[in-house]
Write a structure and sequence with these properties.
With 108 residues, the protein is α+β, with helices and mostly antiparallel strands. 18% of the residues lie in helices and 26% in strands. It contains 2 helices and 6 strands; from the N terminus they run E-H-E-E-H-E-E-E. Strands 1-2-3-6-5-4 form a 6-stranded antiparallel sheet, with helices on one face. The termini are far apart. The model has no long low-confidence stretch (mean pLDDT 81).
Length: 108
């Protein structure tokens, strides 16, 4: 995989790019194999409001792959669903729950 130009195919995490979050997309050109990682500074209150919006759109904490993981609303039946974790004033996004292991652990 190699860095590729970020495209805003996913409306569920587009707010992170719009608010000057760090967004990294890795992939194999013309293959559909893409991994997206993002991080955005926000307060706990901002996250609770955004989390509520996402849940209203269909996001779910059920079957979470890790503590605090919010699976995003379905984007497309042919696209794996990613999710969010809020920790220590940062919201993290991964484009697949298989990538959640790369989200930094909570610090004490």
């Amino acid at each position: 995989m190699q860095p590729i130009v970020f495209s805003t195919w996913n409306d569920n995490m587009h707010f992170m790019a719009d608010n000057d979050g760090l967004v990294c997309e890795q992939g194999v050109p013309n293959s559909g194999e893409v991994a997206v990682f993002a991080a955005l500074e926000m307060t706990a209150e901002e996250w609770e409001a955004k989390k509520s919006d996402l849940i209203n759109l269909g996001a779910s904490e059920a079957n979470a792959s890790m503590s605090g993981y919010l699976q995003e609303p379905e984007v497309d039946i042919n696209v794996s669903r990613g999710g969010y974790v809020f920790r220590d004033g940062l919201l993290y996004y991964v484009s697949s729950d298989h990538l959640a292991q790369w989200i930094p652990q909570k610090t004490d």
